[in-house]
Amino acid sequence: MASVALDCSHYKRDCSLVAPCCNKVYVCRVCHDDVEDHTLDRTTVEEIVCNKCSTRQPVGDRCSKCDIKFAQYFCGKCRLYDSNDLKQFHCDGCGLCRVGGRENYFHCEKCDVCLLLTMKDSHECLEKISHNECPVCLQNLHTSRKPSRIPKCRHMIHEECFKKLFQYGHFACPICGTSMTNMTPIWKLKDEEVKQTEMPQDYKEIKTNILCRDCHKQNVVDLHFLGLKCPDCGSYNTCQ
User: Fold this and answer.
1) 2 in a domain, yes or no?
2) 188 lies in a domain?
3) Is the same domain home to 73 and 98?
4) 139 torsion bin: left (phi>0), alpha (psi -120 to 50), beta (else)
5) Same domain, 112 and 168
6) 218 inside domain
7) CA-to-CA distance for 107 and 111, rounded, in angstroms?
8) In whole angstroms, what is the distance from residue 114 CA to residue 106 CA?
9) Fewer CB under 10 Å: which end of the chain, C or N?
10) Of 168, 185, 171, which is closest to residue 213 (Cα–Cα)?
């Protein structure tokens, strides 16, 4: 059995996993995947090694020799050990452990993912919506421990990635280009900017064809340097 360093920045625990795929010892599956040319399915792990006394033993929450508790949180189904208090809980529907507290989430059977309770009556279901990558960071959404949101276009995205996009002035979905939230207040400000900015005389009579990314309708509108407004839905999320 090959051994590796016991340093791990992903989890706080006093045991390491014996990877059945390569018979090597790693503190966690992420440490394994970072250096190996294959991935570790931690649910297949049958043995662990105590980091205190180095005893190799079957999966369990305590060491069979020195009796230390390996972590404050232990899930036998996921082979997950962690002493970081992240309010972990196991969701049978997702088939894995989540963070954030069971009381704050519900499992949507159609979407096949745990969502924040605040989304229970407002989200639109899409079958297995989380079985994709985040369009920003490209992490798997279903297995990710980060909270996600479902915009009106229903292209799921990590909450923190969504906020970063808005922070840098990007409001459209990276996949389809649809506005990801209610932009009405922003469009009203844009109306005022356009109203107060007169076009040069040579451009005042110019018309241009546009396609609205929000309502998907085509129109002919007056050209303006600050934005091209859709006459049907009022959005400035348009292209020529």
Assistant:
1) no
2) no
3) no
4) beta
5) no
6) yes
7) 8
8) 5
9) C
10) 171
Of 236, 110, 79, the closest CA to residue 172 belongs to 236
**DSSP code, position 121:** T
CA angle (194, 199, 204) in 5-degree steps: 115
Over the range 33-45, which residues count as b (16 or more CB within 10 Å of their CB) and which as e? eeeeeeebebeeb
Q: Is residue 190 part of a domain?
A: no
Domain of 166, in residue numbers: 130-181
Return the structure tokens found at 122.
Answer: 């407002």
- Contacts of residue 194, defined as CB under 8 A and 6 or more positions apart, other chains included, come to 224, 226, 227, 229
Q: Are residues 225 and 167 in the same domain?
A: no
Give the C-alpha separation, 79 to 57, whole Å. Answer: 13
- Per the confidence metrics, is the pTM higher than 0.85? no
Tokens for 169?
A: 């002035």
Mark whether 91 and 76 lie in a shared domain. Answer: no
Residue pLDDT tens, the chain, 240 long: 445 556 788 999 999 999 999 999 999 998 999 989 999 998 999 999 999 999 999 999 999 999 999 999 999 999 999 999 999 999 999 999 999 999 999 999 988 888 889 888 887 788 888 888 999 999 888 888 788 888 888 899 999 999 999 999 899 999 999 999 999 999 999 999 999 998 998 888 899 999 999 999 999 999 999 999 999 999 999 999
Separation of alpha carbons 43 and 22, rounded Å:
15
Q: Are residues 78 and 20 in the same domain?
A: yes
CA pseudo-torsion sign 41, 43, 45, 51:
positive
User: How many domains, in total, are found in the chain?
Assistant: 4
Supply the DSSP symbol for 109. T
